[in-house]
Specification:
Elements: H1 18-23, E1 28-32, E2 35-40, H2 44-53, E3 56-59, E4 65-69, H3 73-80, E5 93-95, E6 98-99, E7 105-107, E8 110-115, E9 118-122, H4 128-137, E10 144-146, E11 151-156, H5 160-168, E12 180-185, E13 188-193, E14 202-207, H6 213-224, E15 230-232, H7 236-241, H8 277-286, E16 290-297, E17 310-314, E18 317-328, E19 333-341, E20 350-355, E21 358-365, H9 375-378
Parallel strand pairs: 3-15
Antiparallel strand pairs: 1-2, 3-11, 4-9, 4-10, 5-8, 6-7, 8-9, 11-14, 12-13, 13-14, 16-19, 16-21, 17-18, 17-20, 18-19, 20-21
Helix pairs in contact: 5-6
């Protein structure tokens, strides 16, 4: 398919894998962190089955890195997040939240610690580079904050371990969940972590030289040929099954960690200092007014994810909204994440969802919807 059909401009960046994804069949893109991201390699359901049965390779260079170095890098990174980082080892990753002075979530990145005072924040969709640089100006801390030449790929699925071993050697099998290791793959400098946005076994491969993006993509696809590796895109079906947040959909600047059940990422009683601590202590003491729940929605299979927030009602009264909804072909159910009034958030509560194609009945159920103990990813 010719690039001219996509209508690209110069104000939005292309990833180092852009040409490769077009060559391998990408037919649709959207914008994330001011970059194009492939969103369509054909059927989303087929993409899901490739992911859960074999493996997919996804261009996620849009997960931009904020690099923090300098003598005070550790102090500064702790200032940005309410998660206690005192036990974060070199070579370890942590899922963290970045909060503002009101306790609102600005981003939910993965934090990677490459050295004593060398960190990356692997971002979801918001401008944390600018936030961090702004915080640094008046922090009094000696840090350097920049966006490095780093572009991740996600290799995800049950056969990703076999493909990774073929690429990097058997030692990759010893890499623990949420840890990282440095590799040189035929002259291509990489960081590989046991992480990913799929709730499946998987790796994120951080390219440290954008000029070699095309070469890296082809090397991985070639290594994965015998294992059924397919080019793909992050799966809305699988991430909703796994109860994973999508920033701007399930959480935003007006959402606090307690509303989305991420209390474990907030150090309330320790003596560490971070932005939003006082606000989060007050919110926790007062109690939240709404919370995220899982829903099963009745009716015919949804034809793709929701593209607007669907109001939730009981007896005509608005009580919240569906933030992410999709049909799971594995569970054979319409499933959704929703934000709802705390007084109507009990399991088993029946609700009405006002979609753009009619009112559907729903019921609050446990989430995640599949593999709640994360046995797949952490095995």
């Amino acid at each position: 398919m010719s690039n001219k059909n996509f209508g690209f401009g110069t104000q939005i960046r292309k990833s180092p894998y852009f040409d490769a994804t077009v060559r391998w069949g990408a037919t649709g893109f959207s914008v994330y962190n001011h970059m194009y991201i492939p969103r369509d390699f054909g059927s989303p359901e087929q993409n899901f089955w490739y992911l859960v049965n074999d493996a997919i390779l996804c261009d996620v260079a849009v997960e931009r890195q904020v690099e923090i170095t300098g003598p005070d890098a550790y102090k500064f990174i702790q200032l940005l997040t309410p998660r206690d980082l005192s036990k974060l080892s070199i070579g370890q990753c942590k899922y963290v939240l970045i909060t503002n002075e009101k306790g609102g979530i600005l981003n939910d990145p993965v934090l990677l610690r490459l050295a004593e005072n060398h960190f990356w924040l692997s971002l979801s969709d918001s401008d944390i580079l600018l936030w961090a640089q702004g915080v640094a100006v008046n922090s009094g801390l000696d840090v350097v904050i920049q966006e490095p030449d780093v572009s991740p790929l996600q290799l995800q699925g049950p056969k990703s371990g076999e493909i990774a071993a073929k690429l990097f050697g058997e030692s990759i099998r010893e890499l623990k969940y949420y840890w990282l290791k440095e590799f040189d793959l035929e002259g291509i400098p990489l960081i590989v972590s046991r992480t990913g946005w799929s709730s499946e076994l998987g790796y994120e491969i951080y390219l440290r030289d954008g000029s070699q993006g095309d070469k890296l993509w082809e090397m991985i696809m070639d290594a994965g040929k015998e294992y059924g590796l397919q080019p793909g895109h992050t799966s809305s079906i699988r991430r909703i099954e796994g109860g994973m947040l999508s920033y701007h959909a399930d959480a935003d600047i007006h959402t606090n960690p307690f509303e989305v059940g991420l209390d474990r990422l907030v150090a309330l009683d320790s003596d560490i200092n971070y932005i939003g601590k006082e606000a989060l202590q007050k919110i926790h003491k007062k109690g939240i007014l709404r919370k995220q729940v899982g829903l099963e929605i009745s009716g015919e299979p949804l034809q793709g994810p929701n593209t607007i927030f669907w109001p939730i009602r009981i007896d005509g009264k608005d009580l919240g909204k569906v933030t992410s909804a999709v049909y799971s072909p594995r569970l054979k159910k319409n499933i959704a994440l929703a934000m709802i009034d705390i007084n109507h958030s009990s399991l088993g509560t029946e609700l009405e969802v006002c979609t753009d194609f009619g009112i559907l009945k729903s019921i609050i159920v446990e989430k995640p919807f599949f593999d709640p103990k994360k046995n797949i990813t952490s095995a």
